[in-house]
Here is the input.
Amino acid sequence: MSVNFFETNCKESSRNEKQFGICDDQNGTKAYTDTADDTKWIVKVTNDDEIDISFTAIDNCIIVYKAGTKEKESSCDGMLTFTESLYLVELKKQSTGGWISDAKGQLENTIKLISENHDLSNFRYKKAFACNRKHPNFTVIDTAERKAFFERTSGFRIDVQAEIKIK
Here is the structure.
């Protein structure tokens, strides 16, 4: 069964503010963007050039089941699309360890699911962001781990940050 990640009612209207946040209330509802209450933001999006950006909620909105079951596939919270760019975003609000590997697993599985349903060759820039409000400082991922992620995901770069800069 084909799943369309790009043309869906989970896609918000595009926005071009210089700054907005991506939120996840962690209550079983989908992630969303916001400009009004930065205390709810898990990740801040900085868009200095005011590019039109679309956010699409994935987790709790685009439901994909594991083959032959009624068990949901693990997916990241959402994606940002603009010009030739596809940025996948996993949002966390946990202070305990292990969140980076959990986020990477969800991002990798989402990349697999999107790739099975879409040709991503028209996206020149592909990134996966693991974001955690409880760990706002930049986290270094070693070169070997970055390279392995890039190879496993057919060209997605991984970043662990609390801010996504649109370029």
Observations:
- The CA atoms of residues 20 and 36 lie 8 Å apart.
- The chain has two helices and nine strands.
- The mean pLDDT is 93.
